[in-house]
Amino acid sequence: GKPKCWKNGFYSSALALSEFSCSFLFRLKNPVKMSGMHLSKEFFELLKAIGEARSKQEEDRIIVKEVATLKKKLETPVSKKPVQNALATNRKKAKEFLVRLLYVEMLGHDGSFGYIKAVELAASSSIIHKRTGYLVCSACLAPEHEFRFMLVNQMQRDLQSTNVLETCGSLSAVTKIITSDMVPAISGEVTKLLEHSSETVRKRAIVALHRFHQIAPEVVSKEEMVEKVRRSLCDRDPSVMGSTLNVIQALCMADSLPFKDLVPSLVSILKQVCEHRLPSDFDYHRVPAPWIQMKIVRILSILGAGDANSSNGMYEILADCMKRADVGINAGYAIIYECVRCITRIYPNPVLLDQAAEGISRFLSSRSQNLRYLGVTGLAAIVEGHPKYAAQHQLAVIECLEDTDETLQRKTLDLLYRMTNPVNVEFITDRLLTFLKDTTDPYLRQDLTLKICNIAERYAPSNAWYVKTATNLFGIAGEVVRPDVAQNLMSLIAEGTGDEESEEADIELRRDAVEIYAALLDRPPAKIPKVLAETMAWVLGEYAYLSTTFSLEVILEKMCIFCKKTGGARLAPSTRRMLLTAIMKLVAQAGTCPPHAAKVVDEYSRSRDADLQTRCLEFQTVLTSAPQVLGEILPVDASCEDVMVDVNLSFLDGFVHDAVVNGAKEYEKPEDDDDDEAMYDSAKVGGSSAFKMTPYEKPTKPTAGAFGGNMRGMGSGGSGQANAGAAGVSLPPGGGANPYASTVSGPSASGGVDPTTGEPQLMLRNVKANVWSKGGVSSAQAPTPPAASAATATPVTGFGSSSAGYGSPAPAPSPWAAAQQPAAPVEPAKTAEQLARERQAAALFGGIVSQPTPVPTPAPPAPSVPKAPVSAPAPAPVPVPAPAPPPAPLAPEVDLLDMSAWDAPASTAASAPSLDSDMLTPTPVGLNDGLVALEPEPILPQPEPAAPADTSTLAVDDNADPFSILDGGSDANTPASLPTLLATNSTFEYEGTKLAPLSITTAQFGPQWGSCTSTSPISVPSTKIDTLAKFMNLCESIGAHLVESIAATNEGICAGMIGGSKIVLIHGKISPTPGGGAKVDVMIKSGDSGLAGCLAMFLQNMIR
Prior knowledge:
The structure is a single chain. With 1104 residues, the chain is mostly helical. It contains 43 helices and 14 strands. Strands 9, 10, 11, 12, 13 and 14 form a six-stranded antiparallel beta sheet that branches. The protein has a two-stranded antiparallel sheet with strand order 1-2. Helix 15 runs parallel beside helix 18, helix 20 (369-383) packs parallel to helix 22 (406-418) and helix 29 (552-564) runs antiparallel to helix 30 (573-590). The radius of gyration is 38 Å and the shape is globular.
């Protein structure tokens, strides 16, 4: 790294010293070239001795000797005769002495004896001495050192100097030396230098002014800084402009709003740089000003994030910049990488994303490890928002995952984490666990553990798989697992799915968990992490009777032996308590206390842990005096039951009454508690208690989610007996009925509670990563996004050739183009290694790849769910305008459980884009995808009513803002006839085909929701649609099928279909507003982005 000086905890880099040291060390290997440095023999011997030191102690002895030498050289002797010190007698050695002082500071020794000499040297008339003095002061003086104030007057004089070198030296020093208290004295002089005739002074002045703004914003305000930066950006010298870009980036990261209007200027500058309009002095290996290009691209990525208008002006120049930078050298690769990062951050554009993915492919296919690292990093940024682009790099990702470079492996694992879905979660989790097992880096272990927990909880294909994965994770990295992860696991085992119909599945899950944890009892306690041992103790204590491999007595004996293996010396106190409680529960379930269990309880009754000792003594008392109540104190499977709490403590009334009768004094409020006494008196006057003693309403059921509930106490009521009995599981001998057990009802329908607002919400995802599905879909049935058909895609071939320019549309394909295409080459036979990698890629990219994987995998088994009949949509009428398009075919019978039905190619009726359309427009617009630019029939002012116009043919103003309709903007840009047309005919049409109802159930709605790739959300305040019933009636009137409505949450879902192949799903929520009316939030999903966008615009105007 760079050499740094340290003093009183203050770090500052010494760049100039680094350059000097590198140059000198080079000359140490070339003694012939040392004659030009004019260095003394003492300095040469010092550097040589430091370089040859074999230990820190030897180095310290060398520095201590050097400190004594420097003190002697720099001290002023006390004498009657005015004898000057070495700096006064020999100025030539002044620089060398202070540089040697820097070496003393860098190696951790005190050099404060020479600080005053550095201040004196900063006032020298020699430029080289002045710069050396400033360097030592900026590197060694702490921020609170008083010598800094001695330099203020000198820096003011240097800033006013006519010598450019003195001015530049002072500007470099003020950024390191000046503190917030000194800014008012210096800022005025620095501001004047922004108009200096020298470009070197101007670019240093803008950097110094930005430093003043950082440390003293009250002196150099934000408004003043923005104004100065705008002027400097238009400076006549490119170097000043390049220096200003660094300041603009720093200011944009804090607040980008004041610089939004600079996008056209920055685009113009970047275009001039790319076209080689700067002097050749700024070129680097034939690349024009690569650092300026990268800086502008970074600024554009900040300004265009989430802003469609700003991003629209960047698309063309980003594409041009990537094309021109592809010259095969590192500087060009750096520009391409910055452009890829910018494309992933700004408002998305499909053409640019395709070009970014193509650039990433060059990095991944390179032999350079650095470029492959950049490729994986860039691909991770792309797939985070657009997972489909990872499909074409499957084998490259597998190769990076198997590479020997650990850094590349880590970055590839991060990529896998970002592209996880319900289909490939098992493969990716297995990879992450394998890498976690082999690594020893504590930071990496913690990071991987967190990622595994996140994807396992979010995409778990089944509860049994989650239990096994969490157990393996606890055994590998239990020391870094969060406690709430173990709590969630125990909640899952205790609650199961929460559905009465899946009672047998829940019992099977608990039985599998018991078998897993019972096998762990044979391991040494030292090899079992704390979180795993506590989870094991809880599971075996609650459900050991379900085991089919081990009897209850065998498990009890194994747990007692487990506690005796190390005498509990290596077990944490909380772990010992959990193990002891589990042994007590097993004794209660067995109905008898074997000798080895009694011995363990007796040993722990003499423990130093008060809690553990109390548990043992209480258990012994109950066991000897009232063993018949042991089953009620420690019931079977009662972890989900509610604990009955008597808030009035009525069971103490008898004791209190007897004590008062025997002469005890009644409780009196303390006299010194004035505040509580006043509150108590006011409560008496008001007639009510000052404290709210009303208990909360008793919950009717435990949380139904897999990880939703909090674990109750170890022993409480027990309805689990009834559940176990219903499933045909025999209870243990000691598992008697609990008279205090309460019956818990099953979960309600698909609904949930928003953790932030507390309001009931419509559940769109559960543990199995499904939507609107009661039982979920297994991994074999997980839906994949429908394949995009080449026939329906817009014929976009890129940004056009160099002759066509940017934004020009691609020419329409010729009818005979297919005939002239060469025959596909015959693929060579693949080796066994290639086939193995392709199988790994198929498992890794499952759920992401829309096209078939390289190696076909066996088809999943047919689901056992019966197929629901779907009514065929009505045929679409032929549009009125001539020439009329061919009528749309009837919608075929659709099997919603057949995933291949959604992968069928869509209709080819999508019209080609207009020649005047911009191919770089943002993705979600979709206004011109299904609307034909025909003038609607005008409504003449005649007595008889005019014929209603067709809503499928609307005229859209080319100059209107395409986002004003979708974003809820003003209606000024909406076509005048649009509201009238929507009011006259409420049926939605797309490409001449009316929306037909799609009869599906809520369980079938979930998988289709996850498979739709295009989303168009709208949020509209409305006084017309202010209830859920009105919204559902509106959806039914436009042609959609009403799937389900939930009145408790004011939410509903509908489904429709266009042409028998294009599915559109609607989810709406009505939120009443205080002033009347309601806010309507609608989410529309479809496999066709144009269909989703058009329906969003249609519904928005209907709701208004």
